[in-house]
Amino acid sequence: MCKTRLDTKIHPRPSRGCKVRVEPGSPGGVATDAAGNLYISDTGNDRVVMVPNSGGVLSTASQSTLLSNLQSPGQLAVDLSGTLYIPEAGANDVLAFAKPSGLVTSGLTTVLTVPNLNAPTAVAVDANDVLYIAEKGNVVESADGVTSDVGTNLKNPTSLAVDGSGSVLIADGGSGYIWRVPNENGVLTGTDEIAVSSAKSILSPYAVALDGFGNVFATDSANAAAYALNRTAGTVNFGKVNTSTTDAASLASSGQVGLVLNSPLFPAFPSGSQFSLAPASTDGCTAGDTLPVGYVCTLEASFTPTQVGTESYLIDFNTGAQNTGSPSLLLTGYGESLPQVTITLVQTAPSGNASYGSTVTVQTTVAPKSGSGATPTGDVQFYVDDNYYGVQTLDSTGAASIALTGLSGGDHAVTVQYQGDTNYGSKSSGVLTVEILPASSATTLSLLACAADPTSAEPANSTNTCDTVVMTATVVPSTPGALSGPVVFSSGNTALGTAYVSGATSNGVTTYTAVLTATGTTALAAGTYNVMATYAGNANYTGSASAASPLIITFPTFSMAQTATSISSSATSPGSMTITTTSESGFTGAVNFSCSGLPAHATCQFIPDVLVLAQQSSSPIVVPPLQTKLTLLVNQAPIVTPTGIFWWSGLLLGLSLFGLASNRNARRRLLMQCAAGCILLASLAGVSACGTGSDVFKTPAGKSTVTVTAVATLPTPGGGTASAKNNVTQTITFTLTAQ
Fold it and tell me: What does the domain layout of the chain look like in residue ranges?
């Protein structure tokens, strides 16, 4: 089966057919099941419509809405069991609609686990139930929960199909090709992908499908046309050739068994033929070999005209192909015998490398090869990376310019094809490499957690209480364009997860965000994080990183912050500082303060001595921080704690003894007066101990390490008795210098 380079255009208005209406919607794809029922993705109405097959006829009168409230459904696919797959570009997911036995219009809808999809637009499924998904700039293979990328040259894939070998065909409007990624020994090999259509004939492939013989049918959104690519009877059209040119053709084993390349592979060319065909130097087709399922080999064809006019030659291949008796390849071209020209290509603006989003001006000059003669006239066609870009007419000097816009970042090959005129033959230019440097980007990060001020949440817990953290990176391109790629969320050297950028457009402005949610089984472990978001960049934009944002993961608690780590205090100038108590993860409760490690005759005074942290708002929880003022008092007399007789009782007893002593003899009177004097002195000492400022109670000069302890007792769930596990205790220390 040969690669075709000239495609058959299908008449845009066939004389027969069944029109199926889903107005006022916008059909985005179709699929059929084994029973012949038709499914239509009505993107404009966010639904899927089913048209039942009734006796071999689609019953449009019985069509019904199968699924609704979708988010931009795209191209559909149905597997052998009848399960319908629906990509949702707006939801970044793929739905699977499995029909119960015997039922057509009802079933079970599930969301497939395919991580990090970016606006999927099309799906296809092979005979082994492997799912292929076209997303923005990529195609993903999903098998048994394992995903991998498919293809290497994709820019804007919009449609998929799978042939009998398991190889994947991709309509890529961005590159202008229909690519075939071969299934080699059960593995898709993107490095061996080939184009099965020419960008010069199908400008912007939009949809692709296969028939039972492996022939390809494609639509072209640029030409509003459909094409049939006969893959068993290919054509290489060399166009107008003045001297000699070469082109390539391929044989592909697209069935379920290997393709036998008999010997000789094709008959010898007749003597004097202007065409030739030989195995290519790389992956060439060798007679006598068997091409394994999915593999491709290449032949190199050349055309060297010896006379003016159209020449053609049909080659019949000798193979074991089962979908045709004899695969064929038609070589055709038009020989010219005219003077030759030289073609130059230069980039005239900007003078250096261009950046993404800028316009590049390229000028070509066509001149007689002989150096003299009439100035060439006519048109030149410009191609970028082998894709037709536009046509310009040569001016009176033989020059033409074109402005190139929308070039992606990286190197681009610009060529021109001169069509020739009555004086000169056609000619292809060499390659001018235009380099597009990536534009810059800027990334910012926002964190939304269970609690704010500070941003905090609980670690994983059995009830999933307050454990959700939403990390949103916003990537702003310096110039509008195609921004895509991964954003890595990290804290220090620890990666927290990866999310992919997606764009949402409002009022003509596209905002690009990547969102990573940590919750439940993916909740973060307890600790303090400084979260950063790093955008990796793509071909169009450089990478960028956000500033770090603090995040605390802890069970409900509080923290303390002090305005000083050392305090000097004297009797006349007591030292003080402010302590701020802050809730974390939604903690609420009363906090009590005390000091330890104080030197003699020093005390702590807290105003207020109790702080009550209370919730102010929810979603997220906000608990305003509170402050207490700590003052250090020195030279403080101890507070006497009564243990037996109060000082005033001692004073009364002493006075009573003096009175009794007057009624006794002299010796006893003297003893009782001594006892009364001692009691009175002790009582008076008790009175003086209640005062302040006495040198007797002076705090020793020097430094001490003081610890402030804050304790909060949380209410026990259910109103039970508080226990130690409900207490939250925090401490801070400072140095006290007593003067």
Answer: 8-231, 341-437, 441-553, 557-637+698-738, 647-690
| Angle between helix 647-661 and 666-688 (nearest 10) | 160
What digits encode the pLDDT tens for the residues 127-151? 888 999 999 888 999 887 788 888 7
Q: Residue 92: pLDDT above 70?
A: yes
Please give the C-alpha separations between residue 732 and each of 192, 196, 728, in angstroms, as whole numbers: 66, 73, 14
**Residue 142 CA: distances (Å) to CA of 96, 137, 457, 664:** 13, 16, 34, 116
The segment with the largest mean pLDDT, out of 98-112, 165-179, 670-684, is: 165-179
Residue 647, pLDDT above cutoff 50: no
CATH fold, domain 557-637+698-738, is Immunoglobulin-like (2.60.40)
For the cut 80, the answer to whether the pLDDT of residue 183 exceeds it is yes
Residue positions counted in the chain: 739
Residues 364 and 380: beta-carbon distance below 8 Å = yes
Cis peptide before 608 (omega within 30 of 0): yes
Q: Pick from 582, 575, 560, 574: which is nearest to 707 by CA?
A: 560
Asked whether residue 18 carries a pLDDT value surpassing 90, the answer given is no
Q: Tell me how far apart the alpha carbons of residues 115 and 102 are, in angstroms, rounded to a whole number.
A: 33
- DSSP β-bridge partners for residue 589: 613
DSSP 541: B
Q: Which among 330, 326, 186, 167 has a CA at the least distance from the CA of 253?
A: 167
Closest CA relative to residue 231, chosen from 220, 246, 217: 217
DSSP 439: B
441-553: same fold as 8-231?
Answer: no
- Record: fold of 8-231: Neuraminidase (2.120.10)
Beta bridge pairs of residue 512: 475, 503
Written in H, E and C, the secondary structure of 396-421 is: CCCEEEEEECCCCCEEEEEEEEECCC
Q: Which residues of 627-665 are buried (b: 16+ CB within 10 A; e: fewer)?
A: ebebebbbbbbeeeeeeeeebeebbeebeebbeebeeee
